[in-house]
């Protein structure tokens, strides 16, 4: 399992060991703080992919702003497979 930034929940170490599984972590904020040139390069590359259409974020659902509570409930329930977008 790869954990990007911060997640939710706790994993029991024993369950990982008996299943011969591992967890690694990744946090962009640390790279931005400690390697700003690398972070800036990656950020520019990411926007180029988005602008060219090569990168298309997965959108689970779009909600009008007045349904923000519903959108938040979807995220809290971990029911989304992709981004939950609020439309102003």
Defining traits:
88 residues; alpha/beta; two-stranded parallel ribbon; two-stranded parallel sheet; 4 helices; 4 strands; 44% helix; flat
Walk me through this protein's architecture.
- The protein is 44% helix and 19% strand.
- Helix 2 (28-34) packs across helix 3.
- With 88 residues, it is of the alpha/beta class.
- Helix 4 links the parallel strand 3 (59-64) and strand 4.
- The protein starts with a strand and ends with a strand.
- Strands 1-2 form a two-stranded parallel sheet.
- It has helices at residues 13-18, 28-34, 36-52, 68-76, and strands at 2-4, 24-26, 59-64, 83-87.
- Main β-sheet, in a few words? 2 strands, parallel
The best one-word shape is flat
Instruction: Please work out how many helical segments DSSP would assign.
Output: 4
Helix/strand class: alpha/beta
Uncertain residue segments: none
Taking Cα atoms only, what radius of gyration do you get, to the nearest Å? 17 Å
Helix content: 40-55%
Instruction: Summarize model confidence as the mean pLDDT.
Output: 88
- Count of strand segments: 4
Q: What order do the strands of the largest sheet run in, or round the barrel if closed?
A: 1-2
Strand content: 15-25%
The CA-CA distance between the termini, in Å, is 35 Å
Strand-and-helix sequence, N→C? EHEHHEHE
């Amino acid at each position: 399992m790869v954990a990007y930034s911060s997640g939710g929940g706790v994993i029991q170490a024993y369950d990982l060991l008996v299943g011969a599984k591992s967890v690694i972590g990744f946090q962009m904020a640390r790279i931005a703080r400690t390697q700003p040139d690398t972070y800036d390069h990656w950020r520019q590359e990411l926007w180029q992919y988005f602008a060219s259409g090569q990168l298309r974020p997965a959108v689970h659902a779009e909600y009008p702003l007045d349904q923000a509570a519903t959108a938040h409930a979807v995220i809290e329930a971990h029911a989304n497979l992709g981004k939950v977008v609020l439309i102003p």
